[in-house]
Amino acid sequence: MTLFLPWLDAVKSHAPVVLQMEAALSPELKQRLSDDLECISIAAEDRRARIAWAQYSDLKPHIDDAACRYRLVQQPKNTGRAARLDEKSGRARDRGTKWKASHF
Prior knowledge:
single chain, alpha/beta, 4-stranded mixed β-sheet, globular
């Protein structure tokens, strides 16, 4: 089984998603995130997103941090629009598989 792990990782990996999102950040913002002057928050229940970012990114997202200007939210499946946020919790109401960075 271990012989196939690198192949399986490449096929099912979230690495391309995380790396593509990081590449979309401006160099200035990426530096501010690295210096902990800005932060990206991920909801505690978004386990896959937290694991993917921990494994494939040098940037360390915060968990449920309302002070962060940026949030990683999930879009509803098969749509191009961002999920609606619950006004009280700030979390996405609709669950999906697409991730999107949202600026507040």
